[in-house]
Amino acid sequence: MDFDLLNNLFYQRALATAGFIGFTNGFFSGFVVLRRNALSVSALSHTMLPGIALGIFLTGALSQWNAFFGALFAALLVGLGSVAVARGNRVEQGTALAVLYTAAFAGGIALLPKIGTRQELEHWLFGDIIAVGNTDIWIAFGIGTIILLVTNLLMRPILLTLFEPHVAAAQGVPVRFIQYLIFTLLVLALVSSLQAVGCVLSVGLLVTPAATVSLLTDRTSALFWGGGLIGGIGSIGAVLLSGSFGITPGPAIVIVLGLLFIAAYLFSPKYGLLAPHHPSRTHKKSKKTAPN
Amino acid sequence: MSDDHHDCCDHHGHHHELVIENLSVSYRRVLALENISLATSCGNRVALIGPNGAGKSTLLKAIAGLVPREKGSILWRGTTVKKWSREFAYLPQREDVDWSFPITVRGLVEMGRYPQTGWWRKFSNTDSLAVDKALESLALLDLQDRQIRELSGGQQQRAFLARSLAQEAHVLLLDEPFTGLDRNASQLLGELLNKLAHEGRLIIASHHDLNSVPRLFDEVLVLATRSVAFGPVAEVLTEELINQTFYEPLISE
Fold it and tell me: pLDDT digits over A105-142, tens only?
């Protein structure tokens, strides 16, 4: 490892930011995995690009705040819009989301030539953690803290809702409020990882860590803390390694997380493909040993 | 947890009553239940039967407070139930549950304590004891560390029953609990529901197998959007009524 690089202020900041965003998004990925519709995260993340384009178009300049509010506005509009359309009982929410986010994305593409900052927009698509500015750090730390606080305070009602909303409602949980809350936090988490990995790769940070943990344990709480650890350590490791392999840090983070997932998929003691007791092979046996 | 389960009903020499009066529910602007009334009490097992779409699930959900009640009232122990009651537990149909959710049997039963602990209070000794007791009375202690998909159908049903016991619920609302169970599991579940009713709980379950109603239940509500008949199984389940409800097309009024 190059010590000059490690002493570089930008590099240190990049490492700290990667670790923090990796941890909070890894923690939140537990909810994304339990919510069972990781694809909607992908749809929402694609909505952030036209949001950023709109932000630049309206204000005439690309700044962190324009990008932040543009992305937030677009993701909330498309996401909540799809919920509202689905409540009409005619169009299913996945369908509504696909319609709205592709339309928004196309709108963003149409706007691009009119704002003339195509080069910089690429940076929002794939992120650039080495160039992270003070504003980005504050946005990321602020959002991360809010996400960690709120989810830990409301962990019980959130888990009840995600597991079985009907039973949760019968126990007095305000299910609809919790569902909107999870959705809002999801959008915030997406926006917070814009700078580090961009809007496309942020999906990986918000899904992969807990997906990996879910292959290793049956404990619900491990999804969050384990996902946080994998996300945080994986991101720091990826930034450190990225230089040696000549890869930009954003993609490196998601590649490392993806490799960890594949390793768990293959080698998990209980659920791994190569595990001696893989469920698909022991299914019959376990049924026999489970009398009613 | 107190021991008052065994005599939660007879304690003061009277039974805890559940009274439903003129309950109507619309689902997506279509009337699903119309003017349902019934009165029953702790210690009973009530079957909800009726053709598909008769509103069995909707009635369970309406009692549990999961669907808005358009009209009518629900009284439990003399008090109106506004939306939901901690003493009611709703048990979903097995096919509605995400069994691959990463949670152990014990974790599932612990969820039943959340109405007691609230959103923040730490899990106390009392809570752990209540969970132990619930697991024990449904013979799940040995299985408590299993992921819930590693259970048989009957065990999964019992896990949700244990969750409602941990909640100290008095009224158990079960949606098709016997569906998909083999004969042994079905018999065991029948015995357990009988035991729970004897301990003073009120069991209300939607059910579709008419033949087993006399064996498994004390009272029956025959539904076809409206209440067709309600009362003790032996009085209500006549051949004439069954033919009229299940085999003839319903003629609207």
Answer: 999 888 888 877 665 667 777 777 877 778 888 888 99
Please report which confidence band the pLDDT of residue A84 belongs to, taking 50, 70 and 90 as the band edges.
confident
Mean pLDDT of chain A: 85
Question: H/E element holding A155?
Answer: helix A155-163
Report chain B residues touching chain A, CB-CB < 8 A. Answer: 28, 61, 64-66, 83-84, 86, 88-92, 96-98, 101-104, 107, 111, 114-115, 117, 119-120, 147, 150-155, 160, 163, 167, 173, 181-182, 184-185, 188
Alpha helices, H only, B102-170? 105-110, 114-117, 125-137, 153-166
Output Rg (C-alpha) for chain B, integer angstroms.
Answer: 18
Interface test with B, best of A154, A163, A277, A292 (most B CBs within 10 A): A292
pLDDT tens for B59-77 read 999 999 998 899 999 999 9
**B146 to chain A: closest CA residue:** A218
Angle at the Cα of B43 from the Cα atoms of B85 and B22, rounded to 5 degrees: 55
More confident residue, A147 or A36: A147
Nearest to A211 by CA among A199, A195, A226: A226
Go through the domains of chain A in sequence order and give each one's CATH number.
Answer: 3-271 (1.10.3470.10)
| DSSP code, position A205 | H
**A292: distance to nearest CA of chain B, Å?**
5
- With beta carbons under 8 A apart, name residues in chain B contacting A214: 102
What pTM was estimated for this model as a whole?
0.85
Q: What is the ipTM of this complex?
A: 0.84
Band (pLDDT 50/70/90 cuts) for residue B41 is: very high
Q: Going by DSSP bridges, is the β-strand pair B17-27/B71-76 parallel, antiparallel, or unpaired?
A: antiparallel
**A114–B contact, CB cutoff 8 A:** no
Residue bearing tokens 């003061």: B12
Handedness of CA A14, A18, A21, A24 (dihedral sign): negative
Task: Tell which of A151, A167, A178 to mutate to test the B interface (max B CBs under 10 Å).
Answer: A167
Residue from the list A36, A89, A286 with its beta carbon closest to the beta carbon of B150: A286
CB contact under 8 A, B64 and A217: no
The Cα–Cα gap between A196 and A113 comes to 25
